[in-house]
Amino acid sequence: MTHDWNVEELLTAYRRILQRAIDEIWENTTWKEKKVKHRYSIGNGKYKYYETTRLIPYFPKSSEFKRELRNKLLKNWPFAKHYVDSAIKTAYSILESWRQNYLKGRRKRRKPVVKRKFVRVKTTLMKVEGSKIRITVKPREEYLELDYSGEWFYERIAGWKVGELIIRERDVYLTFSKELEFNGRIKLGIDSNLMSFDVYHPEKGWIKVDLSELHRIAETYDGIIDKLKSIQRKAPKRIGMLLRKYYARRRNRIEDFLNKLAVQLSREFPDTVFVFEDLNKFKMLENGSRKFNRKLSHSTWGKIVRKLSYRVPIEFVNPAGTSSTCPVCGSRLESRNGLVECFNCRFKADRQFLGAFNVFVRGVGVALSGGEARDLLSNEPGGELRLMSPKSVVRVDLNGRTFIHVPP
User: Fold this and answer.
1) Once rounded to an integer, what is the mean pLDDT over residues 299-320?
2) Which of 87, 187, 248, 276 has CA atoms 20 to 30 A from the CA of 8?
3) Same domain for 164 and 206?
4) Given the DSSP bridges, would you call strands 186-192 and 272-277 parallel, antiparallel or unpaired?
């Protein structure tokens, strides 16, 4: 929501105290050496192994440290005390995010710096009455008030609980939540591919979710942006404005597609645990060609999972071997033209179906080391895995709230 509050003083003070909290935690961080194993391919399926020593950060989290930090930050703090608690919580969140990226090699050993102005408002600073929220700035002196009854989302979140708010210079982010009833009865496996999500559902079978429209959107705008970049020197100011416009359009179109995909997936498979592979796209980018890497960058698997996690339970499994392990005997499969074949037990299947099925098997807690054939697919006669087509192919309906089913 937009607002017309005069909150510049609060925003500036909060950014300053948030940075102070990060500085204090950083100064008291312990760095420990740890040996890390690495490998690189030398051909013929063989690898060369080596070790490096890395410095691993451990942030102070004792109640004594947090108490002392809170007391330091409260000195000469003119606003409600709960903003200090919010700043400490946000500082730890920022540092944990930095730590994860640092361990993955995406960040250097540099302290995070807060540049944007915002205030994270805890629920203890709010009084909610229906659609009206009163936010305490200074106890018994200064308050902010808002009413979201006229907003477009009002009817959709009726009865939901108001969560934390984020105040920025011109707008405020509202969060809402409600408890979902879930009995944990069904799990489904999802194999993430460049142009599709292949879903294995124990009752509905193999369903392919077509993502080609997502790639079409990205490639269309990438083409426009590349052409504009090639002539940017001729008119830097004008072309720069056009680039910003098309970057925004590209981002908004993709976000719209992903939001509708998440909604329609949760509606297609209600009361279900979604099991995904724990993929690392950065490692895939290291081994691919330039053309493949560009296509891979359009596969926003992480964003899709993140948006889905607000609606359904999510679990992750190790992706190793899900598309190359025989579910009948556990042998390594040979892959040809999208099909896989086991030369040990003569099992054959579509590679994408097998990936989804093995993710499902791993999600229900079964090791990919082979099993009784009759126990593999309860909905198939004799429980046999055999060549098959998807039982259904679905596409995102950009004008509706449920998938469009198309012939496989």
Assistant:
1) 85
2) 248
3) no
4) parallel
